[in-house]
Amino acid sequence: MGSLILIRGQIPEMTPEQKERLEKLESIRDEDIDLSDIPEITHEEFKKFKRLRDKKDLWKKIKVRLVEE
């Protein structure tokens, strides 16, 4: 599991390039996203899926800790 520690007041600002990229992504409509290169999931593949039993399992992958300085 990876950890990320953010100190209040020291979160880095987004670069102009990051802001521009985010603005472009926000302006794209769902209908305009090309999904043709993603294969459809078959019924057999759906059968292999496992149901998430506990929401806590979602939080095991990343940990963020905010600390006062």
- Binned, the helix content reads 25-40%
Radius of gyration: 19 Å
Strand arrangement in the largest pleated sheet = 1-2
Count of DSSP-assigned helices: 2
User: What's the rounded overall pLDDT mean?
Assistant: 80
Strand content: 15-25%
Q: What sort of overall outline do the alpha carbons produce when their principal axes are compared?
A: flat
> What is the subunit organization of this protein?
single chain
Poorly predicted runs are none
End-to-end distance, in Å?
A: 24 Å
Give the beta-strand count: 2
Largest sheet: 2 strands, parallel
How would you spell out the order of helices and strands? EHHE
Could you characterize what this model shows?
The protein has a two-stranded parallel sheet with strand order 1-2. The mean pLDDT is 80. The protein is built from two helices and two strands, in the order βααβ. The two termini are 24 Å apart. The protein has a domain at 1-29 and 65-69. It has helices spanning 16-27, 43-48, and strands at 2-7, 62-67. With 69 residues, it is an alpha+beta fold. The longest helix is centred in the N-terminal third of the chain and has 12 residues, at 16-27.
